[in-house]
């Protein structure tokens, strides 16, 4: 009977080596940029000075060839890291096992500390003043937090015991809260297998992320021009970033999933942007009314403020429905972060 080699599952880590995430066909960056041309500015700094910028990730970004390069490279790196990390990412059951084990180990360590006898504690607390390296180690280790060595008296609860007890209790309470959240929002609490893992739940499939990132980029440089047409400029832009990232052409790799995502994400994404723009205008109008005078609002102003409030509520509900299509991996019913 042939010996079967035992394969050990790679321990999952959220760290990727540079050679894994770097774009594999860097020469295609220029081709991807061609779908966004012409650029009014090459430099982001110049674009900002001339007032040609957007707010992105909480800061001003000059709309320029420089920004386009950065965003395309970032999308490619994010895709490669997602492709590498998501297959072996922990499942919910793995997370539960890890945290329950941590809580148990923390509590066991607390019990060990509290069971130390007089002689063990005396040795740990007795640090020779002349031994500077050992003194520094004792300070770093916070030896003063251990129980004091006492004879004929009960030592007070030490800082370390209190802290480990609190940590163990917190871990268990946090885990229970997360379980209740998952039950409320339709996520599995008992692992029954399948393809889903915590990466998919939080970040979504990497190809979905690639198309979503590409759409954001395309809208910055070609606003309103993206379509869901297979073979159209946006579709070709996505495939070029895919090839730039992976080094595999669309002929070599099955890209049906990308084609479907381009079609499925386009309509709801466009509708969501229109609703967002309408909501922004309503917020600006509401602000203008509230800051228009010091006295009480007129009847017409009160009527308009009520109309704005109702419409903003409608927009919020409509956008939430659209997000079920644009962010399909998130359960949006009664959604609140875990």
Describe the structure.
The protein has 338 residues and is mainly alpha-helical. It folds into two domains: 21-89 and 200-326, no CATH class; 92-196, no CATH class. The protein is built from 13 helices and two strands. The protein has a two-stranded antiparallel ribbon with strand order 1-2. A hairpin with a 2-residue loop joins β1 (53-56) and β2 (59-62). α4 (65-85) crosses α11 (233-246), α5 (92-114) runs antiparallel to α8 and α10 crosses α12.
Physical arrangement of strands within the biggest beta sheet: 1-2
Oligomer: single chain
Structural class: mainly alpha
Inertia-based shape: extended
Mean pLDDT: 90
Number of domains: 2
N- to C-terminal distance: 50 Å
Q: How large a portion of the residues is in β-strands, by DSSP E?
A: under 5%
Helix share, percent: 55-70%
User: Largest sheet, if any?
Assistant: 2 strands, antiparallel
Reading the helices and strands in chain order gives HHHEEHHHHHHHHHH
**Unreliable spans:** none
Radius of gyration: 29 Å
Q: Count of DSSP E strands? A: 2
Count of helical regions: 13
Helix and strand layout, with pairings?
Elements: H1 18-21, H2 29-34, H3 44-49, E1 53-56, E2 59-62, H4 65-85, H5 92-114, H6 118-125, H7 132-140, H8 159-184, H9 198-203, H10 206-221, H11 233-246, H12 256-290, H13 299-326
Antiparallel strand pairs: 1-2
